[in-house]
Amino acid sequence: MASTSDIKNGLCIKYNNDIYKIIEFLHVKPGKGPAFVRTKLRSLTNGKVLDNTFSAGHKIEEVRVENHKFQFLYPEGDQFHFMNTETFEQITLNKNILDSPDLLKEGENVMVSINTETDLPLSVDMPASVILEVTYAEPGIKGNTATNATKSATVETGASVNVPLFINEGDKIKIDTASGSYMERVKE
């Protein structure tokens, strides 16, 4: 059993007969009254996000997980196929387990958290950023830059990303996987 002082991002816990992963937390110590921890939990079975508050010292049941490196092979409908890079064992995961499946390129390496008790995959941790090629972008019109103007662009995985006006088709861009936003243009 763990307590609220052990809460950190990425921790998997059992709560309300389900397994949740902590995606955000904040320790709050008000001037009046006891301390508490505000958390944002994502269900690993259905992907729903839940806001919850734990009082200080509350006991939480931790789920023991192992992280393994897997390579993304290919998508097939709502199923995504991965291969363990050490044992070459293949697994198939549902699209709702992934945080941002539309940014996943074939051959990309990810970390898969596996429950040690049941040997079932719980979640997929994407790299912090991915580099993708722009396959379609409307041309930027000169003079439309009074503020930080952006336009919509489609990348090689089919995802749509807002990018600055100077990005053209064929450019490679770095995308933050947590927010799905443009970070920078990559020169090779």
Automatic annotation (TrEMBL):
UniProt domain Elongation factor P C-terminal: residue ranges: 130-185
Database matches in InterPro entries: Elong-fact-P_C, NA-bd_OB-fold, Rib_uL2_dom2, Transl_elong_fac_P/YeiP, Transl_elong_KOW-like, Transl_elong_P/YeiP_cen, Transl_elong_P/YeiP_CS, Transl_elongation_fac_P
Key words, A-Z: Cytoplasm, Elongation factor, Protein biosynthesis
Subcellular location: Cytoplasm
Domain Translation elongation factor P/YeiP central: 67-122
Pfam (any one): EFP_N
UniProt-listed SMART domains: EFP (SM01185), Elong-fact-P_C (SM00841)
Keyword check for Protein biosynthesis: yes
Protein name from the UniProt record: Elongation factor P
Gene it is expressed from: efp
